[in-house]
């Protein structure tokens, strides 16, 4: 009998020890579900020290992954292999993801810091009532350029890019909507045009820009232009702001034919396993001091009107990066064109890239 008790005791001790080791292993790898937060954001789009601060404050472990286009992000989320808790799509992608049931509603009562967002950036057409998305950064698409490298020349329009003086001087952001949008706007069409004839014309016009294009690139565009490897870039405004801090000679212009006004928002994908943590993260990023720190670090414009107060005045009053409502009226926000039309934009953009090579 005594022996049997001893054997049982031993089994219990071994079993408990094993359970303890397994639980420790799990938590050290962050696999306990509600203390791990998976965030999916654009490259170069957060101050990494904020991620650390969030981890320290909440005890959660953040798994941080990046994407370089809305299309890549949507494909990954729709596949469902990874369970993302927070993602940062642009407006037309948000509307598409809503349609495809890829987003969860956001509980505003868990976001006390939402009151700091400028109402100008709330309740927009792609998500009335902000039921599914909370503003992160906003901006435009335009031309960053180095007048000195162009012999003092100023650029004002998309069509200026076709000037033969710009041979092999242009870097383009690797975005289907951005590049197709520039082709369409340069012809006087809308960057949401759904007429296939117009889209083909835009693609053919882009093909004629090839001699002036040095490369189509990702986030490295900032380094290349700041280092004067090329004189001109078609970029998102915040990347231009970042380059201009590095190189004072640069200027940024939103072309006169029109361009894109965009809004990137935080969302909770429907596969989220840590919905409460996702709300905590969103609220953390809405905190004015942190939003200001983030904006200063990445160079993009914050929609947080309280955060603006913490930014250097020359940044927050720079009309090129904080244009007022009147001057953005002539710009267009990307619309959700529907699956087929979006695929057609992507197809033409790919063909253009092949032509370039
Ligand atoms: C930052 C990308 C900004 C995305 N690298 C603009 N929608």
From TrEMBL:
Domain of life according to the entry: Bacteria
Organism, scientific name: Priestia iocasae
Subcellular location: Periplasm
Record Gene3D superfamilies: Periplasmic binding protein-like II
Keyword vocabulary terms for this entry: Periplasm, Signal, Transport
Pfam families (alphabetical): SBP_bac_8
Keyword Signal assigned: yes
Name assigned to this protein: Spermidine/putrescine transport system substrate-binding protein
Main location: periplasm
